[in-house]
Specification:
The chain is α/β, with parallel strands linked by helices. The protein contains nine helices and eight strands. It has helices at residues 16-27, 34-47, 55-62, 92-102, 105-119, 132-136, 150-163, 170-186, 208-220; strands at 4-9, 30-33, 67-69, 78-80, 83-84, 124-129, 142-147, 199-202. α1 (16-27) packs across α9, α2 packs across α3 and α7 crosses α8. Residues 6-218 form the Cytidylate kinase domain.
Length: 223
């Protein structure tokens, strides 16, 4: 099977996770949610009572993380040791602290190494994150950068949280979205930005179905 690595980057609330997962399923590829990996590291830091801004302590607490991420699109489970933390990594507390943890260069190096290993199996693989096209897989066969206005993204996140049974207030979510964008795109190590050769898609006024059609065309090479 030929290697086809599809890098999907962009900020939160663009529909990125749903799209990447659905794309992987539709084209029969593996799927890796790299944000989930940074979230597990953050959960570990919070559980250990470590200040997420204390880089040395964060590195010490996460360097041998017993992290396992499923790559079966739609059924992926995220394990920390034997514990399934797939739900707990989505809490507002983890979300509020993940940018600090993911800004630590040594944490990123460890994660990137693991991500490259998971992507190296051959065949079709969809990796989703912030720095896939720029850092993790700079020679990916397909690079896509999804974006949308902060307001649209905050509304989508609010809806998503509520339908998953989590409390969500639109204004708070919007403030958190803007703050996380700022931190992710201004950090020194691998800031969020489109790769020069990425196809940029603004999803603000597009339905998920319309974006998905575009992604499938790009992924299979007919666009
Ligand atoms: O995509 P998700 O919202 O789960 O990502 C959580 C956080 O993990 C992002 O806000 C970002 O700080 C970090 N992240 C990253 N690099 C990636 C994926 C996620 O820095 N490749």
């Amino acid at each position: 099977q030929p290697t086809r690595r599809i890098a999907i980057d962009g900020p939160a609330g663009t529909g990125k996770s749903t799209l990447a997962r659905t794309l992987a399923r539709r084209i029969g590829g593996a799927y890796l949610d790299t944000g989930a990996m940074y979230r597990v590291a953050t959960l570990q830091v919070l559980r250990a009572g470590i200040d997420p801004d204390d880089a040395d302590a964060v590195i010490a607490a996460t360097s041998d993380l017993p992290l396992e991420v499923g790559t079966d699109a739609g059924a992926e489970r995220i394990l920390l040791g034997a514990e399934d933390v797939s739900e707990e990594i989505r809490t507002a507390q983890v979300t509020a602290n993940v940018s600090a943890v993911s800004a630590v260069p040594q944490v990123r190096e460890n994660m990137v190494e693991l991500q490259r290993r998971l992507a190296a199996g051959g065949g079709t693989v969809v990796l989703e994150g912030r720095d896939i096209g720029t850092v993790v897989l700079p020679d990916a066969e397909v690079k896509i950068y999804l974006t949308a206005s902060p307001e649209v993204r905050a509304q989508r996140r609010t809806d998503q949280d509520r339908s998953a049974g989590r409390d969500a207030d639109y204004d708070e979510v919007l403030a958190a979205v803007i703050e996380r964008d700022r931190k992710d795109s201004t950090r020194a190590a691998s800031p969020l930005r489109p790769a020069e050769d990425a196809v940029v898609i603004d999803t603000s006024d597009l339905t998920l179905e319309a974006v998905l059609d575009r992604l499938i065309a790009l992924a299979v090479g007919t666009d």
